[in-house]
Amino acid sequence: MRVKIAYTVEIEEVEKEISEIMSKAADALDFCYHETVNLQNSMDTGTNNLQESIEMIQIMRKKMIRADQVMEDCHAVLEGLANVRKQLEEKENEIQDG
Question: Coil, strand or helix: which one is 45?
Answer without folding.
Answer: helix
